[in-house]
From TrEMBL:
Keyword Transmembrane helix: yes
Record localization: Cell membrane
Stated family: Belongs to the ABC-2 integral membrane protein family.
Stated name of the protein: ABC transmembrane type-2 domain-containing protein
UniProt KW Iron-sulfur keyword: no
Residues of the ABC transmembrane type-2 domain: 111-334
One MF annotation (Gene Ontology) recorded for this entry: ABC-type transporter activity
Membrane topology: Multi-pass membrane protein
């Protein structure tokens, strides 16, 4: 028994990926969860129009927020869309009114500051909350549906393509291909195009099912939702191929999920990236899920079209092309052509 335990310990210690997954992956995920669920240090900006009495404005200034004064007749919707404030505080008759762009961490913190200020002066005041995007009747699934679509479009295709390509190599199929006259780039593009067919089928099926069966809100054109999901899936195929080239077994591909996939989920829109401390939110530009989910949000939540999402789609294409280039170069270790 002890000899068996010793053999297992030595075997695990000899696998650096396993050691990293056991020891460091939990630390990384817990740190990201603390950013998501902990108390953020973000200081919200609250715009207050001139109808707000001076005592309330004074109480607001005592909160941990930046207070700016705006004119009464300003277009609050446009003001919020321009990201000039996280919330606009005004009076609708005698009732306090808060306008926010959408329900998220930043607007939530702004509303908490307003509520704390009002509780000191008028604890029984009932506030009217108006959202530019979304509805107060939306469920969590309705509000976060675009995130789930983006994550599923990437994650499932990544797992399938990554493990399948490792299996191709372990069974000798890849080596036999490389012994023929086929070029390295043809191998990479062939695998990418092959799995992309299933990515298209998945994108269409998931979009139709979400819209007509689950009744997920689609403010924009469903066509661009499908296109975005397809490009996200193609990036996932290229990502899976890259990981598979540097893995020797299917288990090693799965081992890397906590390290390279789970962190990307935190850049999908679960929390505003500019509220992540230490500047870590800027890492979102290195993750394909960020571009996919950002485009899906613009389409499904804000009702935008190609003019608003084209940069994100181009980023996904560039991401896929860069990874395909890496894959072509990496195949040199199997054959020099």
């Amino acid at each position: 028994m002890l000899n068996l335990a010793k053999r297992v310990i030595l075997q695990v210690m000899g696998d650096k990926r396993t050691v990293a997954m056991i020891l460091f992956a939990p630390l990384l995920i817990l740190t990201l969860l603390s950013f998501l669920l902990g108390n953020i240090s973000y200081v919200p900006t609250i715009a207050v129009d001139k109808t707000i009495p001076a005592p309330i404005v004074s109480a607001l200034k005592e909160q941990d927020a930046t207070i700016i004064t705006i004119e009464n007749d300003i277009d609050k919707t446009l003001y919020l869309k321009d990201k000039k404030a996280d919330a606009v505080f005004s009076l609708n008759g005698q009732s306090p009114k808060i306008d926010i762009l959408e329900a998220n961490t930043k607007s939530g913190k702004a509303m908490n500051c307003i509520q704390d200020a009002l509780s000191e002066l008028n604890p029984t005041a009932k506030m009217q909350i108006n959202r530019v995007y979304g509805d107060s009747d939306f469920s969590t699934f309705d509000s976060m549906g675009y995130i789930f679509l983006g994550i599923f479009a990437f994650f499932l295709v990544f797992v399938i393509s990554g493990t399948a390509l490792v299996r191709e190599r372990s069974q000798g199929t890849l080596e036999r291909l490389l012994m023929s006259q086929i070029k390295r780039y043809e191998v990479v593009l062939g695998y990418t195009l092959g799995y992309s067919v299933f990515a298209v089928a998945q994108a269409i099926l998931v979009s139709v099912y979400s819209m007509f069966v689950l009744h997920l809100p689609f403010e924009g054109n469903a066509f661009w939702v499908v296109i975005t999901m397809v490009l996200t899936s193609i990036a996932a195929v290229a990502f899976g191929a890259t990981v598979s080239i540097f893995s020797t077994t299917e288990f090693q591909v799965l081992q890397l999920i906590p390290l390279i996939i789970v962190p990307q989920i935190f850049f999908s829109g679960l929390i505003p990236v500019d509220t992540i401390p230490y500047g870590l939110g800027k890492l979102c530009y290195l993750t394909p899920i960020y571009y996919g989910c950002s485009a899906l949000k613009l389409i499904m939540v804000e009702g935008q079209g190609i003019s608003a999402i084209w940069l994100f789609l181009v980023a996904l294409l560039i991401y896929a092309l860069v990874l395909c280039t890496i894959n072509v170069v990496a195949l040199k270790k199997y054959r020099s052509i």
